[in-house]
Amino acid sequence: MADRPGGTLAAYRALLGAQARSQAAYRVSFVVDLVGNVGATVFDVVTVLALFGVTRELGGFTLRETLVMVGLTACAFATADLLVGNIERIPRYVRTGTLDAVLLRPLGALPQLLLMDLPLRKVSRALFGLAVWVVAVASAGVDWTPGRALLVVVAPLAGVVFFGSIFVAAATVSFFWVESGELANSLTYGGRDFTSYPVTVYGGWFRGLFAYGLGFAFVSYHPALALLGRADPLGLPAWTGWAAPGVALVAAAAAALAWRFGIRHYRSTGS
């Protein structure tokens, strides 16, 4: 089927359709999962609100300013987790030999892995993240310009690409080290937590590594500064607030190279 014109796309549609039908077969369970999956993002927002219950500023930023970063992270991460997050299951696929079967099919390995277990229950989390982003921006008192109107759309998309790239790049470690789940989680979920707060609350080598070495500062912190019209307390130029799409593209290119390298050097478990 994949050799006929349009056959590859049809095969991917069939995989997605099969997942949708199987996950929605038990409707009550599916609805419960949809509702339950909102909890993680709700907790992230409540945590920030609790912090501001005992302080007026966090790293030099007010509650409304911080919520812009929280909303951007929530929207971007939840969407990336929906679309790409199940790649974190690759250690199990490697260990059980499922990846071997995937590689035998005349389809791209990465699209297959993403579609074969797409967690549709996480749609509610992505929608809630989007709602948090919209409310945060609407209440932040942004001085709107055409550029900022564009950034409010582009920044979450860039964040989705960036977090998706982190998911994929971290997963490739499993080709060489099957028990690498905790390392991957430190980059994916750790990165989500890092970007939920102003980078000014961190210091030393930790801020340098995560914020600029790995690029997490360009997910929410610098776009938020550009939207709010604030100068960077760390002294970086104003144009860094508009660098998120470029950083996301670099991250995507690096993840693609890492994935290709991992696939080429993968050796079957023999199971």
Concise synopsis of the structure shown:
With 271 residues, the chain is mainly alpha-helical. It has one domain. It contains 13 helices and no strands.
The biggest beta sheet reads: none
Quickly count the helices: 13
- What's the mean pLDDT score? 86
Poorly predicted runs are none
Q: Care to describe what's here?
A:
With 271 residues, the protein is mainly α. It has one domain. It has 13 helices and no strands. Helix 3 runs antiparallel to helix 4, helix 3 (39-51) packs parallel to helix 8 (123-138) and helix 9 runs antiparallel to helix 10.
Q: Can you tag this structure with a few keywords?
A:
single chain, mainly alpha, 13 helices, globular
How do the helices and strands line up, and which of them pair or pack?
Layout: H1 7-24, H2 27-36, H3 39-51, H4 63-83, H5 90-96, H6 98-104, H7 109-115, H8 123-138, H9 146-171, H10 181-195, H11 204-213, H12 221-228, H13 244-264
